[in-house]
């Protein structure tokens, strides 16, 4: 799916899971190629399952992987460490350069590193090895969708062509810039501006 579609799935999942859990759970939603990964903590199994069922009803979601655990919500210290581990894994992916690191999403929850993406078996093994040897990682969970080497090359070629097209389009504006008078006619609401 496109970036916009993946972000839409993520935000709809967060909304649906908050409603299903009555805001009693800490849930992270990550979407890649319309596959939805749920991580976090729920106070009991009933709420854990309700969250997964709510997420499965989101339009355009192909599958839901429910990795939410029944446990008290993590604290700020744990979440800070998770952010650190995620950034270390991503940085090590970029330094490795033997696979398309941009095709692997990294999510860390309570020390468990989740890897998801569209990769070959070789790329999955490389990414897993890097994640497993990252400081403060407790466990690695693979949520990959596997492709052949030929498909991976085709994806990379398509991405290269899209970058070239985007660069060409960026140098030639196709619409007139908004003027102040045009901006004054736009009515913004809180849902129009989403930063993330």
Count of alpha/pi helices: 6
Return the structural class.
alpha/beta
Q: What would the principal axes of the Cα set say about the shape?
A: globular
Give me the side-by-side strand order of the main sheet: 1-2-3
Q: How many angstroms separate the termini?
A: 18 Å
Radius of gyration: 19 Å
Oligomeric organization of the protein chains: single chain
How much helix, percentage-wise, in residues?
40-55%
Mean pLDDT over the residues: 85
Strand % is 15-25%
The poorly predicted ranges are 176-196
Note the run of SSEs as H and E. Answer: HEEHEHEEHEHH
The largest β sheet comes out as:
3 strands, mixed
Quick one: how many beta strands? 6
What can you see in these coordinates?
The chain starts with a helix and ends in a 12-residue tail after the last helix. It has 196 residues and is an alpha/beta fold. The protein is 47% helix and 23% strand. A hairpin with a 2-residue loop joins strand 4 and strand 5 (112-119). The chain has helices at 3-21, 45-56, 76-96, 121-132, 149-171, 180-184; strands at residues 26-32, 35-42, 63-70, 104-109, 112-119, 139-146. It has a 3-stranded mixed sheet with strand order 1-2-3, with helices on one face. Helix 1 runs antiparallel to helix 2. The protein is globular and about 50 Å long.
